[in-house]
Amino acid sequence: MSEKKLEGEYCPEKIYFSDKHAEVYCYRKDTPTELIEKILAYLKEKIPEPLEMAADVGCGSGQSTVILAPYFEQVHGMDVSAAQIRQAEATRSLPNVCYGVCPAEELPLKDGSVHLLTAATSMHWFKVDLFLTEVRRVLCDNGVLAVYGYMSMKPDFGDPEVEAQLDRLYNEYFKTLEPYHVSASLEMFKNKYKDVDFPFEEVVRCPDVRCRFEGRLVDIVNYVSTFSGFQKCVKENSTLATECIGDFQKRLYEIGATFKRSPEDTVTLYRDYQLILCRKTNK
């Protein structure tokens, strides 16, 4: 299927097809090990090692794909955007990882061949019913679908009042960009897929998983610049986009300054991941 046809049929946000946006996605951090280990613990309850094949659908530039490589003999990263796949191949290439361009609703995988299929901060962009039907087809008996993602990345200063300030900062950022978001997709994700009927025998909606790591305040600014709404705003109203990201940056750095942290200083950051685990137990 040609890139133009993929763009027309499967991607409401055409920005994902640009090389520039694929480069911006590299600001996103790799999936944390503790989250993958939680997923693997669930998988291994009914599938023993060695684990053969994993697939990461909507893989973007590979941050959620390479994290699977140490645990599986073969890992497939797939995305509807050729630009994202080119970026993944250039920056996150490993011997047992292969990347390919395809829609989430038409996976080039054999029936019953996949032990684990992941969709990281991506399922809300898919035609969900078609995607979930395809997932059931490719998963082996007792295979697992793991749907996960996070809305924000924040500094952990250990102060509830500051955390409330950061919540307001993100809410206002989202509000400014609201006209540029694909609202149905964003609401599905913000709602933690609560309205999605997952067609599996086992469905476990995990409490949010907080993952901490070392980073910088500038990493947060780079991260929010990857949001689809912001990238669309850049194309359609560059002045507003500049003002929006400038205000976010200014207020974030002011919060950091109260703790004597510069934008480039190392601080503790965190992401709250939503995680849904689904197991196929009937062929």
From TrEMBL:
Specify the taxonomic lineage.
Eukaryota, Metazoa, Ecdysozoa, Arthropoda, Chelicerata
Tell me which domain of life the UniProt entry assigns to the organism this sequence originates from.
Answer: Eukaryota
The protein's name is: Methyltransferase DDB_G0268948
Query: Mind telling me which Pfam families this protein's record contains?
Result: Methyltransf_11 (PF08241)
Keywords per UniProt: Methyltransferase, Transferase
The molecular function terms in GO held by this entry are: S-adenosylmethionine-dependent methyltransferase activity
Q: Which PANTHER family match?
A: METHYLTRANSF_11 DOMAIN-CONTAINING PROTEIN, METHYLTRANSFERASE TYPE 11 DOMAIN-CONTAINING PROTEIN
| GO BP: any one term | methylation
Gene3D superfamilies recorded:
Vaccinia Virus protein VP39 (3.40.50.150)
The regions listed as transmembrane in this protein's record are: none
Member of which family? Belongs to the methyltransferase superfamily.
Q: What species does this protein belong to? A: Trichonephila clavata (Joro spider)
Q: Does the keyword Hydrolase apply?
A: no
Q: Which InterPro entries match?
A: Diverse_substrate_MTase, Methyltransf_11, SAM-dependent_MTases_sf
Q: Where is the Methyltransferase type domain?
A: 56-146
